[in-house]
Amino acid sequence: MTPEDFRRNGHAVIDWLADYMADVEKHPITPDIRPGAIRDRLPVRAPESPEPFGAILADLDDIVMPGLVHWQAPGWFAYFPANGSGAGILGDLVSTGLGQQGMLWATSPACTEIETAVLDWLVELLGVPAGWRTDGPGGGVIQMSASDSTHTALVVARHRIGASADPADLVAYASQQAHSSVEKGARVAGYRHLRLIDVDATYAMDPDALEAAVAADIADGLTPAFVCSTVGTTGTTAVDPVGAIAGIARQHGMWHHVDAAYAGTAMILPEFRHHQEGLELVDSYVFNPHKWMFTNFDCSVFWVADRRPLLDTLSITPPYLRNKATDTADVIDYRNWHVPLGRRFRALKLWFVVRSYGAEGIRHHVRRHIEMAQRLTGRVEADRRLELVAPTTFGLVSFRHVAGDAATDAVVAAINGSGRFHVTPSRLGERTFIRVAIGSTTTEQRHTDALWELIDLSS
């Protein structure tokens, strides 16, 4: 493909994407197809001869579109948002076009230094400890997902203990409402013991229960190594008491990781920062701009309060990676900040987003989403057929039908069967409830109003 071919075809792709962004609301959010339907449309073997680009582009409509789940639709209220933006798309396009391999500063100084600068900006924008800037003892790195960040924290915690304890005796702790990535990460990192701690009436971790579990494990000859607090759990956006948990972690020498994958973006609003008081005492923290900060997947920010344990754990330098810049110790080589060696220029799309929206623009949209959630919460509270199952702390509304699971399931079926909206049902104890996660880039009040009309009719 010559540069002129690329220019012509690129314009066609941008036009196609612009049309998709304009029309996404018109598509049924989930496809009505059987498993294997897309695969059946594809040839058994790769083409031997080149195909015209126009034919490839046409198959986006003919083959790809019928199998899409439209995560960017304004009626997308399922899981958590994965909200992209025009700025994020263009940043990702430029990143892909430049083809940078940013494993070392020497392999792409721009890739490294823009990432460093943008993550330092976010320290101030989110009100997290200033020492997490790279000109302090800590620093940040972009990972693929919060799961990767949590897995990394578990490995660092294990390595930090080193020979002072038998790896088979290490224990990790998280609340019963913590994300499944903690359990998976503990398994990957070789922990044999994971304790899921009881929660209180708001589904936040009970510090007394944590302290009792730690004491019991010590009495049994085990070594507490890691604890994860969650600011905004996946089920109900419960907020664990970070400060109280930090005190227990410090007392017993545990690595304390905070998972704010979804709710971390809300900390750009100063009025929400009380939810993470105590961060000055934690060891690591993750939030995902690719959830609620208009930055297309994948982009997960992992901060550490002190980068030395991270680098001690992950730094291995074979001869083929040695270079003058690295040897001076004056640069950051991000390959030492996570498990993979290779790394894309993810910071570019985040840089595009922060500059295109500005801090005030991001604050405006996040605050608007939270206001929509509060309005929907008020409607649920006023309807005697429905009940909230948890407080609406951020942009997630969690409720169920008072008549029980069958009635709740009927509401879910009506919403998801409409084609206009999609929600995620979940369970607390023995009962089903409905999660409405408001945060898609194009969601407006009229969409949540229409969703409420459907809930009202189906209840």
Return residue spans where pLDDT drops below 50 for at least 5 consecutive residues: none
Main β sheet profile: 7 strands, mixed
In the CATH classification, which architecture of the domain at 100-344 applies?
A: 3-Layer(aba) Sandwich
- Shape summary: globular
Radius of gyration: 23 Å
Please count the helical segments.
15
What is the CATH class of the domain at 100-344?
Answer: Alpha Beta
Helical residue percent band = 40-55%
CATH superfamily of the domain at 100-344: Type I PLP-dependent aspartate aminotransferase-like (Major domain)
Which labels suit this protein?
7-stranded mixed sheet; alpha/beta; 4-stranded antiparallel sheet; Aspartate Aminotransferase, domain 2; globular; 459 residues
Compact description:
The chain is about 45% helix and about 15% strand.
Task: Give an overview in words.
There is one protein chain. This protein has 459 residues and is α/β, with parallel strands linked by helices. It has a domain at 100-344: Aspartate Aminotransferase, domain 2, CATH 3.40.640. Helix content is 43%, strand content 13%. It is built from 15 helices and eleven strands. The strands form two sheets. A seven-stranded mixed β-sheet has the order 1-7-6-5-4-2-3, sandwiched between helices. Helix 5 runs parallel beside helix 13, helix 6 (146-161) packs across helix 7 (180-188) and helix 8 packs parallel to helix 9 (242-252). It is globular, with a radius of gyration of 23 Å. The mean pLDDT is 94.
SSE blueprint and pairings:
Layout: H1 3-23, H2 37-40, H3 53-64, H4 86-98, H5 109-126, E1 139-143, H6 146-161, E2 170-175, H7 180-188, E3 193-197, H8 207-219, E4 223-230, H9 242-252, E5 255-259, E6 284-287, H10 289-292, E7 300-304, H11 307-314, H12 324-328, H13 347-382, E8 386-388, E9 396-401, H14 405-417, E10 424-428, E11 431-437, H15 445-458
Parallel strand pairs: 2-3, 2-4, 4-5, 5-6
Antiparallel strand pairs: 1-7, 6-7, 8-9, 9-11, 10-11
Helix pairs in contact: 4-13, 5-13, 6-7, 6-11, 8-9, 13-15, 14-15
